Amino acid sequence: MSEKAITDFFQDAWVAFHGNKDFASKYLKSLYIGDVADYKPTPVQQDFRLLRQTVEDNGWLRPDPVFFITHFLSLLFFDAMAVWILWQFGTGWLPWVAAIVLFATAQAQAGWTQHDYGHQSVFRSSKINHLFHHLTVGVLKGASSHWWNFRHSQHHAKPNKLRKDPDVEMAYVFLLGKELPREWGAKQRGIMPYSYQHFYFFLLGPPLLLPLYFHYEIIYFCMKRRDYLDLFLAITYLIRIGYTYTPFLSGWGTIIFYFLARVLESHWFVWITQMNHIPNDICYDQKDEDWFTMQLRATSNVNSSPFFDWFSGHLNYQIEHHLFPTMPRHNYAKVAPLVKSLCEKHGIEYRSKTWYKAFADIVWSLRASGQIWYKAYYE
């Protein structure tokens, strides 16, 4: 990237990520090198910064406490209902299945909630957001706050950038985009039959990401970094599940119940989180892109409805979420028309799909990438 492009990008990225800019600025003094001569933002930068000012002036970065309290109570309700059904109706197959669905629903919604805390969009205070993020992602989800921040901050800073975004670093199982499949095919790298990855995705992706891979990665991350606090919080989650369900289901019954619920949640999580990114451009970081253009290239929306907003944790507004990471999700719908208007003005594509097309595009993009690998490998 050119010096001007780097300046443009990091100015907008810094503003997007930091709520308390006066506090964050204190840490920049030691990094000061100099000023870029004859700096002038592009028309896209100018308009996006005006839009950012409009967002701040309208108070769209301020959270609605009622929204977040209601949502948090609702996930606790689903969690409690899973236990109540087993207590009230026993462990026959029908109440057992209902309890799995309710517990998985509570887990999925807790995942969207910890995402809110992680993005500093629930409380004005960063310290309180961090505290609730540790507790929610640890005690309610069995994960690590530091692990989540390590992965997710990189994803937001460089979405769909190979070797920078960990969410697209899965080459030993899936090859994404156009560039990496062509490169690996030409060098005859990899051990998977990537031309069939759109088939084995259904076996290795949605069912196993949460119950197997994330458990392994979180433990490895915490042990490697000696993050014993997050590891302890994650263990308290497993203890809570054991003490809650073992009286109804016994030891092995609880393990089976837990695993199947996490498999169900994993399907929910994978389809929602991948529908906005995998079908879009995935490339190496070789373009002089400003913050706005990069986020629109790498993200897409799914059409809004009251149910799908809830089901996806408002991640169907992925464009607005990436442009304004600290914005409370209940305000995405307010800024979306302005973002779309700005895109139309500058000839930038604003992608919004139906949910079934968004899900289907995941599979078609895997198929297209697999064919690119196959052609490069054998020709």
From TrEMBL:
The chain crosses the membrane at residues 93-112, 199-216, 252-272. Pfam families: FA_desaturase. Keywords: Lipid metabolism, Membrane, Oxidoreductase, Transmembrane, Transmembrane helix. One of its GO terms (biological process) is lipid metabolic process. One of its GO terms (molecular function) is oxidoreductase activity, acting on paired donors, with oxidation of a pair of donors resulting in the reduction of molecular oxygen to two molecules of water. It is a multi-pass membrane protein. Residues 92-353 form the Fatty acid desaturase domain. It is found in: Membrane. GO terms for cellular component: membrane. Belongs to the fatty acid desaturase type 1 family. This is Fatty acid desaturase domain-containing protein. It comes from Pomacea canaliculata.
